[in-house]
Amino acid sequence: MFRKSINTKLFILFAITGILFSEALSNAQESQTKRPNSPSIKWVNQPKPSQENLPPNSQHLCFLSNLVKQKIGFCIYLPPNYSTSKKNYPVIYTLHGNGGNEFTCLDSIALLHQGIMSGKWPEMIMVLPNGGRNTFYKNSADGKFPIESIFIDELIPFIDANYRTLARRDGRCIEGFSMGGRGATRLAMKHPHLFCSLFCQAGNVPHLLEIYDAATAAERKTMLLGELRQNWEADDVYAITEKNTDTIRKNVRIKIACGTVDKSHIETIRDFHQHLITLGIDHTYLEIEQLGHKRTKMMSELKSTWFDYHVESLRRASQNAQR
Fold first, then answer.
1. Is-contact 172 146, C-beta < 8 A?
2. Which CATH number fits the domain that encloses residue 157?
3. Are 61 and 128 in contact (CB under 8 A)?
4. What is the C-alpha separation between 305 and 309, in angstroms, rounded?
């Protein structure tokens, strides 16, 4: 079922078959001149009928963003003993895909709660941010969607200030599917001092600088990152990872998973996997046979080990912090 590489140095290299350029509705790409789905966000959402019954110990709340002068919704799960203990807990930030919102990944909360109740996983907090549509969790050049800054500079400090978290790198994990996996990967590589664990779930990793160079000046004006090359350099995961290689090696454990028939994502994911090998950054890499771009099915396939990687990352980071 799975192709797996834990020691990446032994992994057979894949042939990379080109660069993805256009931005599709599936959130696979970055740069079509007439985007079918422009960046947008509804700052506070309401649950769909199927989402009205939140998982146990979960709430839908808001925090006030000074950056956009708006209340922004998020969902948070607190472990069963939170109200009666005085402990501080690690946090997993789970980023939704394109077209989702703060309610999209409630099944992740449900799975975590089930595992905690069965004794499989230790007690942890989970936060589901609202990242909007087609923002890729970046700061847009026009300033309308400072999603990265909202997440890094406002939401994380808000959670740490208002809940008993382990408010440091060794108590913080990040993950996401599709746009969420792409965003989580970039944020972890860009801010390796903030996270000890990354789980990229079918989050494609395009070469932004190649896209920038291939675009015309007129096309760049229509793109999320705008006309200035420096904006693209600051968010190109390949350049960021190379720049921060030493810190990433030391601080962040990385897990990447994707389906073999996830055509719009697998090529750049393989490319990023190879980039990590070239830089000597150890990571775990999984390809799931005959799986397309299906989050629920991926979770089902990997259900028994879904949070194991984060748990081990937290354990190792805690041990290292105590030395």
1. no
2. 3.40.50.1820
3. no
4. 8
